[in-house]
Design a protein that fits this description.
6-stranded mixed sheet, alpha+beta, globular, 7 helices, Deoxyribonuclease I, Chain A, about 250 residues
Length: about 250
């Protein structure tokens, strides 16, 4: 049985873009969908109804909630709203080929300087404690991690705002540690595994410039990866400031 997982930051709950967002998700034929910036529970419920999927909603430590939509029965759900997290970590367990598969979605703190990355490191350390408690069970972590693969080369420069001042930042000067925490713990970057040389930019403002949305899998699950792609096109460019990413396992 094929399993397709999609991760999508829908920007401020989707607002008046819900029909377009629903159309994009439906076109990808995803079995489970992680929604980041699911600010409005009503909007998340509307998407679930339009797509014929069940909703699991994770209240966050901010207005930027996390949600899962699933066509498959959810046999367990848990929201890890740790104080250190800017948002939250939402787990659902689904039954895939008769085996429980744990899926986690999160949205790490934003920001493009060393202080922000240090905060994300603290978030990821707590998240990894949860993930690694599963031992050898196959599982995946998806979402907007707001960090880079140190080997990726974004289009430069990027503008950042610190207080009221705007400045130019060369991302290569930052010690991007979150990605390495995951890979050192054994997790596999599904997009990079399937696309060794593609840029795979997922953040689109003012144009596709950086890859910050990920699907990470345990090695046993990654062995069954058949494809992983970023959804591109005119509709995707206007539906949100992020492009959705999906991974398919067989």
């Amino acid at each position: 049985m094929t399993l397709r997982i999609l991760s999508y930051n829908i920007l401020y709950g989707g607002e008046d873009r819900l029909p377009l967002i629903a159309s994009i998700i439906q076109a990808q034929q995803a079995d489970v969908v992680a929604l980041l910036e699911a600010n409005s529970r009503d909007n998340a419920e509307t998407l679930a109804k339009q797509l014929g999927m069940d909703l699991t909603f994770g209240e966050s430590n901010s207005d930027f909630h996390v949600a899962w939509l699933s066509k498959l029965p959810v046999i367990r759900a848990k929201n890890y709203r740790f104080p250190v997290l800017a948002k939250t970590l939402l787990e659902i367990d689904i039954s895939w080929e008769g085996i429980p598969l744990a899926l986690f979605a999160t949205h790490l703190t934003a920001g493009r300087n060393e202080e922000h990355e240090r905060y994300r490191v603290g978030e990821m350390q707590v998240i990894l404690e949860v993930l690694q408690s599963l031992g050898d069970r196959p599982h995946a972590l998806v979402g907007d991690l707001n960090t880079l693969d140190p080997k990726d080369v974004p289009e430069l420069p990027m503008e950042i705002t610190v207080g009221t001042k705007q400045s130019q930042l060369q991302p290569a000067t930052i010690s991007w540690q979150v990605y390495s925490l995951l890979t050192n713990a054994g997790y596999v970057d599904c997009y990079r595994l399937a696309n060794p040389t593609e840029q795979g930019f997922t953040y689109t403002r003012p144009h596709p410039v950086i890859r910050i949305d990920y699907i990470f899998a345990t090695p046993s699950l990654a062995q069954r990866l058949s494809a992983c792609e970023v959804v591109v096109g005119e509709d995707a460019m206007i539906a949100s400031d992020h492009l959705p990413i999906w991974a398919e396992f067989k």
